[in-house]
Design brief:
Length: 254
């Protein structure tokens, strides 16, 4: 199948904060591929390089070296085209809390050249699927934390992206709502949307993802099918395997 995301020898070194300091190597030449239609889990501890990688893919962070492509379009030389394929759901809420739910979604559509009349029509099924339709005329500050998370997803989907990137989409969400979001994401993936998921809820990754990559200290430790990875570790729970792997990394000599 075609590649939704293709990363080759990708490096990112953040410059030193002060004279005399060394730069921080957030990515140390990683190579990674996500095929079109995949549900892909990108896992790793805080500071592992996940957010930097996502930032480069979305054109929010400049790479130091290497290549990154979205559906064959380079994220630097063909950045405008590459961005049209991506719907990003960041970890932090970043919408106007005084703006109405529907307006947040339709305003996003405008950035992709979608007329407001069409955007309102397109928003209806998305908001209904995410349980936000009855709240569409309310300011977003009145939403619960879980509904705000769903609003972020609705906004990311309004231009029908081929790739949905979710950075901790269920953080702080209760179990019932988390399961509802799982069902919604499975539905989107079944319709052909490629999904990259970062999460600290490893049960979530185990249940949803077909392929997994684990990144730590800017390097890829694991990149393989989820089922094969679990079987290779005697069908332990993903959480147990992950913790053993990260702990062994801590104990390795530098």
């Amino acid at each position: 199948m075609a590649s939704a995301v293709s990363v080759s020898n990708l490096k990112k070194i953040y410059p030193p904060a002060r004279a005399g300091d060394t730069g921080v190597a957030a990515l140390k030449g990683i190579t990674l591929e996500v095929t079109e239609g995949d549900f892909f889990a990108l896992l790793g501890p805080n500071g592992a390089g996940k957010t930097t990688l996502i930032g480069i893919l979305c054109g929010l962070v400049y790479k130091t070296a290497g290549e990154a492509n979205i559906f064959g379009h380079d994220t630097v030389s063909d950045a405008s085209r590459a961005k049209t394929y991506i719907g990003l759901v960041p970890q932090e809420f970043n919408f106007n809390i005084f703006e109405k739910v529907e307006d947040i979604v339709t305003t996003q559509a405008g950035y992709y050249g979608i007329p407001r009349k069409q955007a309102i029509k397109d928003a209806e099924p998305i908001l209904k699927d995410l349980g936000l339709w009855e709240k569409r005329h309310e300011p977003s500050q009145k939403l619960s934390g879980g509904m705000k998370r769903r609003l972020m997803i609705a906004r990311a989907l309004i231009h029908s992206p081929k790739l949905l990137i979710l950075d901790e989409p269920t953080a702080g969400v209760d179990v019932e709502l988390r399961r509802h979001m799982w069902a919604f994401l499975r539905k989107m993936n079944a319709k052909g949307t490629t999904i990259i998921l970062t999460t600290h809820y490893l049960e979530e990754a185990e249940q949803l993802a077909r392929n997994v990559a684990i990144i730590n200290k800017g390097e890829i430790l694991v990149h393989e099918p989820m089922q094969g990875f679990l079987e290779r570790h005697d069908n332990k729970k993903l959480e147990d395997i992950y913790l053993e792997l990260i702990e062994s990394e801590k104990n390795d000599p530098v």
